[in-house]
Amino acid sequence: MATERLIYTGRVQGVGFRYTVRSIARLHPVTGYVKNLPDGSVELVAQGDQPAIDALLIDVANRFRDNIAGCQRHPQTNAEVFGVFDIRF
Length: 89
Fold this sequence. Notes:
Shape: globular
Largest sheet: 5 strands, mixed
Distance between the termini: 25 Å
Order of helices and strands: EHEEHEE
């Protein structure tokens, strides 16, 4: 099982990003969360098999291609184990 943390920048707050990402994530066998950050970026943490994570991220990138200006992708080790994919506040 892999865990990745992504930080999306651009016009990613106030456009339904978190709720749409949660809906997309439910179509894939992944867990984790999506959360707005104070600087206007959005954090996404995805956990699952690497192909499932990659498929989720492709779907997110395709859906928000006009909103995402940048994305930093970081593998995580010793990560929290998640039971569902949800929105954090």
